[in-house]
Structure to design on (180 residues):
């Protein structure tokens, strides 16, 4: 029976191991499809979140845990987890956007979209953050610190957007992202 599930487990581990590539690719596709300044701002926020957490990492300089497979040991510092921080940013910003922001005209006009998207993003983000521990890349405190950083960063980034950033976004959208 266990042999039947081995390919599924291997595939899930592989997807979680390369979650940054999958999430980045999906984000780029959504930005290109919608041509939304708000979604581009969100994507830029993910990059900014990653950069700030990496700066904190270089300051703290806490090593990662010893990996069970020495060949897969990462060289960078572990505190706080960049994956946990950025994926928490994705989940928290998505929740806030679905709750408080108007739908972009390229997004399907159904009230269910505000429920479906977070119902997919939040469990996926949780799985990615937790996987950092069981894949051996981070300790629990490193993932928790990354999660806290992601929540804090989301608050700041979302606040900038709703307190006036969207006005610049609308102007950019009309000028550069308009569909012909």
């Amino acid at each position: 029976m266990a042999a039947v599930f081995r390919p599924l487990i291997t595939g899930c581990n592989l997807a979680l191991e390369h979650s940054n590539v999958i999430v980045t690719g999906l984000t780029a596709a959504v930005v290109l499809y919608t041509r939304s300044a708000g979604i581009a701002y969100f994507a830029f926020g993910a990059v900014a979140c990653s950069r700030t957490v990496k700066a904190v990492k270089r300051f703290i300089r806490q090593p990662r845990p010893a990996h069970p497979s020495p060949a897969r040991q990462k060289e960078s510092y572990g505190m706080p987890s960049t994956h946990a921080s950025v994926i928490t940013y994705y989940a928290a910003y998505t929740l806030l956007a679905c709750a408080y922001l108007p739908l972009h005209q390229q997004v399907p006009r159904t009230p269910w979209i505000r429920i479906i998207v977070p119902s997919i993003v939040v469990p996926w983000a949780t799985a990615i953050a937790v996987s950092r521990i069981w894949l051996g890349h981070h300790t629990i405190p490193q993932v928790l610190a990354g999660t806290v950083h992601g929540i804090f960063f989301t608050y700041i980034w979302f606040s900038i957007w709703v307190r006036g950033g969207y006005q610049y976004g609308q102007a950019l959208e009309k000028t550069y992202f308009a569909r012909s």
